[in-house]
UniProtKB/TrEMBL annotation:
Name of the protein this chain belongs to: PCDA6 protein
Keywords: Calcium, Cell adhesion, Cell membrane, Glycoprotein, Membrane, Repeat, Signal, Transmembrane, Transmembrane helix
Top-rank taxon: Eukaryota
BP-aspect Gene Ontology terms: homophilic cell adhesion via plasma membrane adhesion molecules
Main location: membrane
Residue span(s) of domain Cadherin: 6-105, 106-214, 215-322, 323-427, 428-539, 575-667
GO molecular function list: calcium ion binding
PROSITE patterns: CADHERIN_1, CADHERIN_2
Subcellular location: Cell membrane
Length: 718
């Protein structure tokens, strides 16, 4: 802790201030043994430690005014040192004031010259006395030696403190008393009180006995701070009742406050006009206190005084100032409502309504302002953000004060929005229809798929893949037929496609972004394989026989057989025209026009006894048969499809011409499995006609489906 003592100033040498050793906790005799002493300070302390008793005593004159001046309290900080062991203690010594200083006037004598015509009540400022003491010891009161002409007046003015005036109570007469000698006394508030005096020597002048007088003692003027240079502040008027040169007045200006405003005003010494010579600024100085002196030209000159208070009125000459004190960008697009984006400070140097500022955000945006405390605002998020819709906001904070007209300020804040993975890749179509011709080359491009992800960077980087499974490929997955490039979305075939094996393949393509967590989108691809004419017509084996018949066949009305790859049939002499002799049966593995077959008689050419149904394949008599046609006819029949280019197969039919009885025997010797062929002749013909009708219907349906697929494919591409 710290030891504190108090001693009055001017205490005699040897005065005990305090039992230092005892207060520091030292035993009797220990102070001298451990060399208790004061450490030398920068200024003389006027106290010392008694070696024998360890007491702190006054060693020389203590003068509080010399040590501390007008500061109160007057505290001296001392350091006390003891040895064995070495320790340092801090001691604070307060020197209390005693009334040892009398009030002092600036001069022992003050000469005043007063006109004999000075009216009673005239006031003349006097310089007061000063006292070096503090507190009540420095509180002064004034008295004046008795005079029937003069008295004192002490005024307490808030702006100027105390003012001392000599007041004329009775008119002067130089001829009676040319000089008045008065004693002005100042007494302090000490006990006992001390007094200082000053002699006032007042000379009464016989001439110019009227001093200039202003209309009022204090003038108050208000000026806007934007008043121009040369503006008339006030026209002062002081009057002097004397005549001639004693009534000629000149004016002078003294600036009381502030001291740095001496160049702001200028006085016309002749007219008393005070004009503005420097720009005013309410924010720097709002009030000027001036003292104007009016002096006549008499001998001796007389003067009158007045105070001029110039109040500067605020005008709206300062626009608001907006500054950003903190900025947290970029803002993630999933930031919650209420997130603080920036802290702003708004100020206006004007006062009153001119300094009241309102702020808002322009243009309308998901951001708003919240006032935290006076002059501070927070830019906060008011709505949810979507970077894919707006990736960056240019927010302008506008401020407007309450002046007339109002002044405005603006501050732009750029708020970028950072991306989060909130958008899954989306294909342009939910279903893609792809047309591919069979027998395409492996690696051929089938289509290009594209999925859009509006996110950026990795969140928007899309990779493609074919989902496992698929419909239409049988037991084989779709990935065995097609593949998709992971980066470009190019769909290409892994192997040539075969329409006869696969007509439609439906599968899903998946698009996955690189976000965390990743998001995906799917699209269905319907791959239609278009038929090519890559299969020739194949002749079916004869009815009732196995596949070993060699792939060629004939169906006879009476009897049918084959020998060495040649079809043979029997016909009776005299058979009428139109009688069916045989039927050529063939199929084509293709579809549509490529599978629509037509039958042509290639040999013999010209007008022979037989003809072939163009689409039925039935071989019938073209006319009645006679012996001139010979015992056997060899027919070469070509079966063609409608593909481009057309493919064909050839069948050779040998028809034997017999008598009717022999024809019946040949029919009975036919295949055992064809015993009922003669009885079913009419049914076979009807079935052939029905087959032709359904074949035409199937061809039209397939053609319509093909045209519809082409139109859909073209529309999806467009």
């Amino acid at each position: 802790g710290q030891v504190r003592y108090s001693v009055p100033e001017e205490a005699k040498a040897g005065t005990v201030v305090g039992r230092l050793a005892q207060d520091l906790g030292l035993e009797a005799g220990e102070a001298e043994a451990r060399r208790l002493r004061l450490v030398a300070q920068g200024r003389r302390a006027s106290v010392e430690v008694s070696g024998a008793s360890g007491a702190l005593v006054v060693s020389s004159r203590l003068d509080r005014e010399e040590l501390c001046g007008k500061s109160a309290p007057c505290a001296l900080r001392l350091e006390v040192l003891v040895e064995r062991p070495l320790r340092v203690f801090h001691v604070e010594l307060e020197v209390t004031d005693i009334n040892d200083n009398a009030p002092i006037f600036p001069a022992a004598r003050k000469n005043l010259s007063l006109s004999e015509n000075s009216p009673p009540g005239s006031r003349f400022p006097l310089e007061g006395a000063s006292d070096a003491d503090v507190g009540a010891n420095a509180h002064l009161s004034y008295t004046l030696s008795y005079s029937e002409h003069f008295s004192l007046d002490l005024q307490k003015i808030e702006e100027d403190g105390e003012s001392l005036f000599l007041v004329l109570r009775k008119s002067l007469d130089r001829e009676t008393i040319p000089v008045h000698r008065l004693l002005l006394s100042a007494s302090d508030g000490g006990r006992p009180s001390l007094t200082g005096t000053m002699e006032l020597v007042i000379s009464v002048l016989d001439t110019n006995d009227n001093a200039p007088q202003f209309n009022q003692s204090v003038y108050k003027v208000q000026l806007p701070e934007n008043a121009g240079l040369g503006t008339l502040v006030v026209r002062l008027n002081a009057t002097d009742l004397d005549e001639g040169t004693n009534s000629n007045i000149f004016y002078s200006l003294k600036l009381l406050f502030p001291l740095d405003g001496r160049e702001v005003f200028r006085t016309d010494s002749n007219t008393g006009e005070i004009r503005l010579t420097h720009n005013l600024d309410f924010e720097d100085v709002s009030l000027y206190r001036l003292q104007v002196e009016a002096t006549d030209k008499g001998t001796p000159p007389l003067s009158g005084h007045c105070k001029l208070l110039v109040e500067v009125l605020d005008v709206n000459d300062n626009a608001p100032e907006v500054s950003v004190t903190s900025l947290s960008v970029p803002v993630p697009e999933d930031a919650s409502v209420g997130t603080v984006v920036a802290l702003l400070s708004v100020s206006d140097r004007d006062s009153g309504a001119n300094g009241r500022v309102r702020c808002w955000v322009w243009p309308a945006s998901p951001f708003g302002l919240e006032a935290t405390f006076s002059g501070s605002y927070s830019l906060v998020l008011r709505e949810a953000l979507d970077r894919e819709r707006v990736s960056e906001y240019e927010v302008e904070v506008r401020a407007e004060d309450g002046g007339a007209p109002p002044l405005r300020a603006r501050r732009g804040v750029r708020v970028p929005v950072s991306d989060v993975n909130d958008n899954a890749p989306a294909f342009a179509q939910a279903v893609y229809t792809v047309l591919a011709r069979e027998n395409n080359a492996a690696g051929a491009e089938l289509a290009r798929l594209w999925a859009r992800d509006p996110d950026e960077a990795g969140n928007g980087r899309v990779s493609y893949s074919v989902a496992e499974g698929g419909v239409g490929g049988g037991w084989r997955p779709a990935s065995s037929y097609v593949s998709v490039d992971a980066e470009s979305g190019r769909l290409w075939a892994l192997q040539p496609l075969d329409f006869e094996e696969l007509q439609v393949l439906q599968f899903e393509v998946r698009a996955v972004d690189a976000g965390e967590p990743p998001l995906c989108g799917n699209a269905t691809v319907q791959l239609f394989v278009l038929d090519e004419n890559d299969n020739a017509p194949a002749l079916l084996p004869p009815a009732g026989s196995g596949p070993e018949a060699g792939g060629v066949a004939a169906e006879a009305a009476a009897a049918l057989g084959s020998e060495s790859g040649t079809l043979w049939a029997w016909a009776a002499w005299g058979a009428p025209a139109g009688q069916v002799v045989a039927k050529i049966r063939a199929v084509d593995a293709d579809s549509g026009y490529n599978a629509w077959l037509r039958y042509e008689l290639w040999e013999p050419r010209g007008k022979g006894p037989f003809r072939v149904g163009l689409y039925s394949g039935e071989v019938s008599t073209a006319r009645a048969l006679d012996e001139a046609d010979g015992p056997r006819q060899r027919l070469v029949i070509v079966v063609r499809d409608h593909g481009e280019p057309a493919r064909s197969a050839t069948a050779t039919l040998s028809v034997s011409l017999l008598e009717a009885a022999e024809t019946a025997l040949a029919a009975g010797a036919g295949s055992s499995s064809s015993r009922s062929a003669a009885g079913a002749e009419s049914g076979s013909g009807a079935a052939s006609a029905a087959t032709n009708v359904w074949l035409v219907v199937a061809i039209c349906a397939v053609s319509s489906l093909f045209l519809l697929a082409v139109v859909l494919y073209g529309a999806s591409r467009w």
